[in-house]
Amino acid sequence: MIQLQNLSQNSTESLSITAVIDSALCVGAGGTSGTLADKPIVRTATGKLLIPASQFKGRLRHECEKIARGLHRKVCESPNPQTMCPQRAKFPENEEREFHRPDYQIAGDERYHCLICQIFGNPALPSRLLFDDLICNEKAENLPEVLRPGVTINRRRRTSEDQKLFLLETSPANIQLEFSGHIHFLPRYPAYAKPLLFAALHHIHALGGSKSGGLGWLHWKFPDLKIDDNAWNALKT
User: Fold this and answer.
1) DSSP H or E segment with residue 39
2) Domain boundaries, the chain
3) At what angle do helices 53-70 and 193-201 cross, to 10 degrees?
4) pTM
């Protein structure tokens, strides 16, 4: 059983990370929250802007999966639990056999978990990482409401739909807002976790919605990671 009060005590390492927004951010929340926007931006209880940890983790996992496949490592298909390790339903028998390798097993578990699941977890295996929400510490009163209009496009007819104007709430544009948090590495995380995360972060150039419209573009600030050659080599085997 996971004891929430012990999570911080069990964490062996924490990586401080900051997303610097180069354009404007649009991470939508449910409800209207007293704004004219059809899609208001998500905030903390105290009104601060944030990037949810779930969105950050999901995007990071997706990039890690792409890198692992590029290195010819067999990876399950998330986020559907049925096609993730250890179940991997509907995988052809010849592909399933490719998961049966010693480095896809962990101590005390005879099932096979791909290298991505060993980092981020799956329905049968806890994640070895914990993610904070990335929070902007700028005071809410210093960030005026910004509404960006949009219209629904009928892609078949290549025209805008009638009466489909909507408003998106975004952060103020081009002021280099910083969203900070931590990635926590729990005990027994795989040695290749750091180099894989390091590479994946360099593949994430935008978060949130309307990226094709120029929203959510960013760059990262984080300390230099000390990664030995053995950790890099573990990804290539």
Assistant:
1) none
2) 28-236
3) 100
4) 0.85
